[in-house]
Amino acid sequence: MAVSRMKLKKLEGHLQSVEVFDNPKILLEQYPTTPHIASVMLHEIQTKFNDIDGCTVLDLGCGCGVLSIGSVMLGATYVLGIDVDEEALEVCQKNLDDFDILNVDLLQQDIVNISPKDVKCASENIFSKKFDTVIMNPPFGTKKNAGIDMEFVKAGLMMSTNAVYSLHKSSTREHLRKKAKDWGVSIEILGQFKFEIADTFKCHKQKVVCIDVDFVRFGNK
Ligand code: SAH
């Protein structure tokens, strides 16, 4: 069977071996995408939109690399993973080595610094329109950095030609729709997941809360 047609369960099984953050940094919202969610996302992106096999992929806020690695398994020709955190990138590189993956490069960069003021300014930097597809699980934006997920989407739209696939708190769905309209891009909610995150508002208690998260496609065309 062609790698690109790898079955969902098989992909999920492979992604179980991806190591996650040693010491997750709450302020950077380091919540790894579970193998189940990652495989469902990637499988849908490939089977419904054909946006991975034979494509170049950008993974913004790549963390330990589960979305980059899964993209390669589904036939991406090249992946660039960008993250601000050096320690996350070290874990990611180790994962790539363990999987013998050579066509993924990693770059340490703060996405907020390369996000354009306006998504229509396609010539803002050297990454403009350099990738077919962007796949990401961005920080959702806590009290401290509200709106950071939209900075990631803007950066993704500027750097890709096809589409940006992303995860966002379902409670922000109407805001996302409004932004997509303002930017002149299409938006489609592809599904919904339950996500466990640390409750950062209860500073001194290590509480975990379950939130609804939308799986969203922003179309550039
Ligand atoms: N994509 C990974 C990690 C998701 S967690 C996965 O799916 O498992 C969000 C990631 O965004 C973390 O790795 C965090 O370090 C990174 N991040 C947070 N703020 C960032 C910023 N301003 N620029 C780049 N990366 C950032």
Protein described:
This protein is of the alpha/beta class. It has one domain: Rossmann fold. 32% of the residues lie in helices and 25% in strands. The protein has a seven-stranded mixed beta sheet, sandwiched between helices. Strand 1 (56-60), helix 3 and strand 2 form a beta-alpha-beta unit. It starts with 7 loop residues before the first helix and ends with a strand. S-adenosyl-L-homocysteine binds next to helix 3 and helix 5.
Quick recap of the structure?
By secondary structure, the chain is α/β, with parallel strands linked by helices. The protein has 7 helices and 7 strands.
Largest sheet: 7 strands, mixed
The quaternary structure here is: single chain
- The CATH architecture category equals 3-Layer(aba) Sandwich
Mean pLDDT: 91
Distance between the termini: 31 Å
Give helix % range.
25-40%
Uncertain segments are none
Q: How many β-strand stretches? A: 7
Bound molecules: S-adenosyl-L-homocysteine
Task: Explain the layout of strands and helices.
Blueprint: H1 8-15, H2 35-49, E1 56-60, H3 66-73, E2 78-83, H4 86-98, E3 104-108, H5 111-114, E4 131-135, H6 148-159, E5 160-169, H7 173-183, E6 186-198, E7 208-219
Parallel strand pairs: 1-2, 1-4, 2-3, 4-5
Antiparallel strand pairs: 5-7, 6-7
